[in-house]
Specification:
- The chain has 221 residues and is mostly helical.
- Helix 3 packs antiparallel against helix 4 and helix 4 packs antiparallel against helix 5.
- It is elongated.
């Protein structure tokens, strides 16, 4: 009875934490994109704008919580899959998810260090330090972090399709999102938002499916 009750609760937990992760990461990416200039653009001395610096700091404050909820999301999804998971794909799933969080935190640390260096110098850091910090931050965010997100999306879609956890259309959507993250994010601004949007869609599906199964189980009891 306890195991059955836990099986009913796991999809609900996966859906809820996934939704929170998607919202937090989307908000952080949007705030960073609106405030931190793209490395290919003329940045100007944006450090002197206190409101823009506070916006970046707000985004950086959201990222640790997004990473925490993502880890909970991974755990809930693995619990939902259970012992039927393919060990090879599951290892890729787990490794890519952990590397995604690590590189995401690295990008946040780089942006935070950039702000700290600007604050220490009073009126902002030099152009070379600004350029290095922006390239480093965006490199971690749009290249390394999103590549790991692509592998995570691909492995999750593969597992979900093989075990019937995800419908066919959602698995195909995951493959398309993975291709976008692999080949587009470092050249097209804002394209990294497809990852939290995909996580939101998957979480909503898991949540709705879990509620339906729970309602059917209560009705049959």
């Amino acid at each position: 009875m306890v195991r059955r009750h836990q099986a009913l609760r796991t999809p609900l937990a996966a859906g809820l934490v996934g939704i929170i992760f998607a919202l937090l990461l989307s908000a952080a990416i949007i705030l960073v994109r609106l405030t931190l200039p793209d490395p290919g653009e003329a940045s100007g001395d944006w450090f002197s704008d206190a409101s823009r610096r506070r916006t970046v700091q707000t985004a950086l404050g959201l990222i640790p919580f997004a990473g925490i909820f993502f880890l909970w999301f991974m755990g809930a999804v693995r619990a939902r899959i259970g012992d039927a998971e393919d060990k090879f794909v599951a290892t890729v799933f787990l490794g890519s998810g952990l590397l995604f969080v690590a590189t995401l935190f690295g990008a946040a640390a780089a942006a935070g260090s950039l702000l700290a260096a600007a604050g220490a110098s009073g009126a902002g850091s030099g152009p070379q330090l600004q350029s290095f910090g922006q390239h480093f931050t965006y490199g971690l965010l749009t290249t390394y972090s999103m590549r790991m997100a692509a592998v995570f999306t691909l492995s999750t879609s593969s597992i979900g399709h093989q075990l019937g956890v995800l419908p066919r259309w959602l698995s195909i959507l995951g493959y398309l999102v993975a291709l976008t993250l692999l080949f587009v994010t470092d050249s097209i601004a804002w394209s990294e938002l497809v990852f939290p949007l995909w996580a939101l869609v998957v979480s909503l599906h898991i949540l709705v499916a879990g509620l339906r199964r729970r309602s059917a189980s209560v009705s049959s009891a």
